[in-house]
Amino acid sequence: MTSRSYGQYCGLAYALDLVGERWALLIIRDLIMGPKRFSDLNRGLPGIPSNVLTARLKELEQNGIVGRRVLPRPDGSVVYELTEYGQELEEIVLRLGLWGARSLGDPRDGELPTAGALLVALRASFQPEAAGKSVSFEVHIGEAVVHARVAGGALETGEGPLEGADLVLAGDATLRRYMSAEVTADEALKSGRVAITGDRRLLDRFGELFRLPPSVVAAS
């Protein structure tokens, strides 16, 4: 537990003692996607000083939320991953991300999309009841590239491009507004701020499969 405790006998207060330090939840967000090397975490969290990342990982390890292990040879790298206790935060982080997305608005100066943020958004907004035939997507926002496969009602996500994706989408915050039904697919495409490669009908499918809650702030 951090030294700056809230000093209250309360589950929420203690949870904030454990994961409430700056950057901690974003580290957990990225580890939800799977084990990562220190360099992977550092690259996926623009703006985090290396010493702060080291300190947060140490705190999360001490609190039993994150563990580390050495990959088998020939790799031999050390990776960080969520413990069983830490994995229980996944649903909490996804729900908190959906709540925050309602006030997200457009990016402010210096705010960059990251692969971790996109992957969490896709996982949090996934509508399994809308899944039908298998379909795959590749999504580009800025320099961040991720992919998603939907098959058998289940979602599989990952960083980077996906060879043979059924639909490739590229865009900016307009894509978020489409996912929250603030603009239609046709409006998003007509704006020129969302572009696709593939069957136009699959953009409608994407909007059915990945739905964000409506925004509570006006678009800029």
List the topology elements.
Blueprint: H1 11-19, H2 24-32, H3 38-44, H4 50-62, E1 66-70, E2 78-82, H5 84-87, H6 90-101, H7 115-125, E3 135-141, E4 144-151, E5 154-159, E6 167-171, H8 173-179, H9 185-190, E7 194-198, H10 201-209
Parallel strand pairs: 3-6
Antiparallel strand pairs: 1-2, 3-4, 4-5, 6-7
Helix pairs in contact: 6-7
Task: Describe the protein.
- This protein has 220 residues and is an alpha+beta fold.
- The protein is built from ten helices and seven strands.
- It has helices at residues 11-19, 24-32, 38-44, 50-62, 84-87, 90-101, 115-125, 173-179, 185-190, 201-209, and strands at residues 66-70, 78-82, 135-141, 144-151, 154-159, 167-171, 194-198.
- The strands form two sheets. Strands 5-4-3-6-7 form a five-stranded mixed sheet. A two-stranded antiparallel sheet has the order 1-2.
- Strand 4 and strand 5 (154-159) form a beta hairpin.
- The longest helix has 13 residues, at 50-62.
- It is globular.
- The N and C termini lie far apart (40 Å).
- The mean pLDDT is 93.
Number of helices: 10
Q: Helicity range of the residues?
A: 25-40%
How much of the sequence is in beta strands?
Answer: 15-25%
Shape: globular
Low-confidence stretches: none
- Encode the helix/strand succession as letters: HHHHEEHHHEEEEHHEH
Distance between the termini: 40 Å
Write down the Rg.
19 Å
Could you give a short account of the major beta sheet? 5 strands, mixed
Number of strands: 7
- Would you tell me the structural class of the helices and strands? alpha+beta
The strand line-up of the biggest sheet is 5-4-3-6-7
